[in-house]
Design brief:
The complex is a heterodimer of chains A (99) and B (215). With 99 residues, chain A is mainly alpha-helical. Chain A contains 3 helices and no strands. Chain B is built from 8 helices and no strands. Among the domains of chain B are: 100 residues, NADH-ubiquinone/plastoquinone oxidoreductase chain 6, subunit NuoJ (Four Helix Bundle (Hemerythrin (Met), subunit A), Up-down Bundle); 43 residues. Classes of the chains: A mainly alpha (99), B mainly alpha (215). Chains A and B meet through helix 1, helix 2 and helix 3 of A and helix 1, helix 2, helix 3, helix 4 and helix 5 of B.
Chain lengths: 99, 215
């Protein structure tokens, strides 16, 4: 298969993740959709890495996975803290910072 | 053979992604993401990056998703029910919510078109090929030996920074999800700061006895 097919799949996954981030209201699902966007980026990185026969893209993909794991850790911690304070788990309701 | 495998895995990847976005129950969203990740690992294998595929399955589909499942089970699987209940009470007219949803979908479609133009319309000749040459072997492109060699020589700084980032994230997660406190009110008692070590004068400390602390 040519590299262009993989790039098309990565673009579709990224756009789907973006739609999810914009439309869903549950912060858990928003985090899942962020993972989708990161995975789309990872697939493009690895496809380009294969295209050039160079390992740098794979290293960058592993770093992206690390950052995604950190983001999940912090995000889920915040969701648990929100739940403990009995606030609504809904990104549309949590708008105290919105000026 | 590889074409068939590619299409099966790509359908799995896209179906998983659609499932994450459209399923109402967050638990099913997590399961759809697991499907997505495993199919994505197959795509990584087709792109000759075995180590990244293994990391994807073990770390992502194994560890991170377990974290998600636990949090979904703890917080409760209510998806959009809170927002809908408020909307039923008239806090949010339903027209605005569905309009925003439609707008999000339109924006996502525009993003997809733009990305496809950017990625496929570049005219790069290499994207229509199968990629660079590949010679199988114990230290070939994408094997653990290859990745480890790169990580410990050329990308050593990145490697160390990633480990620091993981440490900071672990500490932050523990602090945020503590039983008391979190982002809420702080503990009133037992707060030790270094300034508390300074005692008022004349309380008979050893420092005053030896005269190292002037009045």
């Amino acid at each position: 298969m040519s590299i262009a097919w993989y790039l098309a799949v990565s673009a579709i996954v990224f756009a789907l993740g973006a739609v999810g981030v914009m439309t869903r209201r549950n912060p858990l699902v928003v985090l899942l959709c962020l993972e989708l966007m990161l995975n789309g980026g990872n697939l493009a990185l690895i496809a380009f890495s294969r295209m050039w026969g160079n390992g740098d893209g794979q290293i960058l993909a592993i770093v992206v996975m690390t950052v995604a794991a950190c983001e999940v850790c912090i995000g889920l911690g915040m969701i648990v803290a929100i739940y403990r304070r009995n606030l609504p788990i809904d990104v549309d309701e949590l708008r105290e910072l919105q000026g | 053979m590889s074409a068939v495998l590619f299409f099966v895995a790509a359908i799995g990847v896209i179906a998983g992604a659609v499932g994450v976005v459209v399923l109402r129950n967050p638990f099913f969203s997590v399961l759809a993401l697991v499907t997505h990740l495993v199919s994505l690992a197959v795509l990584f294998l087709l792109l000759r990056s075995e180590f990244v595929a293994a990391v994807q399955v073990v770390v992502y589909a194994g560890a991170v998703m377990v974290l998600y499942v636990f949090v979904v089970a703890y917080v409760g699987g209510e998806s959009d029910s809170i927002g809908e209940r408020l909307r039923g009470n008239g806090a949010h007219p339903p027209a605005i919510g569905s309009g925003l949803r439609l707008g999000g979908a339109v924006l996502g479609g525009a993003l997809l078109v733009e990305l496809l133009i950017a990625l496929l319309g570049t005219g790069l000749e290499a994207t229509s090929g199968d990629g660079a040459g590949y010679v199988p072997g114990p230290k070939a492109f994408g094997t653990p030996a290859y990745i480890g060699n790169l990580l410990l020589t050329r990308f050593l700084l990145v490697f160390e920074l990633a480990s620091f980032l993981l440490l900071i994230a672990a500490v932050g997660g523990v602090v945020l999800a503590r039983r008391r406190g979190g982002i809420g009110e702080e503990d009133e008692h037992e707060k030790f700061v270094p300034l508390d070590m300074r005692r008022p004068l004349g309380t008979g400390t050893m420092a005053e006895g030896v005269g190292s602390r002037r009045s």
